[in-house]
Amino acid sequence: MSAFTLYRTIINVANVVQELETAGMRIEIGDDFAAYRLLRNAQKDRPIIYPMFDVACSYVDKSNAFWICGFNDKDELVHTQAMRLLDLSGMTLGQHMNIHRHKYITPNSTPDPDRTFYARPQALGKITGRVCYHGEFWIKDGEDGNRKQGFSPLLARIAFEMALNTWAPNYVFGFVQTRLASKGMPFRYGYTHCEPGSWYGPDAQITDEDCIVYMNTKEMVHLLKTPAQALSEEREIPTLRSTVQPLSVVA
Q: For residue 58, what are the CA distances in angstroms to 33, 50, 104, 111, 138?
């Protein structure tokens, strides 16, 4: 990462974080997944942490992943998401998922994870190279939460800024429940592609329905060049887009 790219990322992320903190959500970003596991395991009202981001069953650390958490003014966890880099050189996402299906299956959604697989989307045969998996996205609902308040695009934007400028992935993808995808959630996150898919169990029964959402590098760059909408008033959050020009040296 160049010095200017680092500077631009810091400024853009800081502007979004400041907007969220003004609205009452304090943001923490980290890469200690043992600490993240403790935070997630303390949430008794959510399914257990996905294996892809669980240090108990996956090699996940600062070299290939980061997490983002949000806390309210009572210091309660009200938001989570995580991003992980995958090296899919020489293979497609579909081939990768056939091998590592257990890490993507929603816990307790199928009677036999060994015989459950995800199918249908054309993206499974197209996504390859340096790929980021975006998961664990959750916003607390209710009186102390921030769901349905316009936070999702800003929270996702932090993850995209960091992933793009840290790893320069060819693709970033995630899964969204079909019922939520039908309400436009992937597009609020900023994803440009959304394809329906299903998890098929041992007797060819559908055990879960998830859409795969994704975008490539150019689409991510375009998204991040577009100023984000602020949470309040009719204004945009400033985005640093210009490039630094070499200084003229006078002899």
A: 10, 10, 12, 22, 21
Tokens representing residue 16 in the block: 């979004």
Q: What is the pTM of this model?
A: 0.92
Query: CA-CA distance, 195 to 176, in Å (whole number)?
Result: 10
Coil, strand or helix: which one is 115?
helix
CA–CA dist 37, 50 (Å, integer): 10
Residue 79 contacts residue 140 (beta carbons within 8 Å):
yes
Q: CB under 8 Å to 135, separation ≥6 — which residues?
A: 50, 52, 53, 81, 82, 83, 84, 174, 175
Reported as type and span, the H/E element at residue 175 is strand 171-177
Contacts of residue 97, defined as CB under 8 A and 6 or more positions apart, other chains included, come to 104, 117, 118, 124
For residue range 151-166, list pLDDT tens digits in order. 999 999 999 999 999 9
Quick one: angle between helices 151-167 and 3-22, nearest 10? 160
pLDDT greater at residue 204 or residue 243: 204
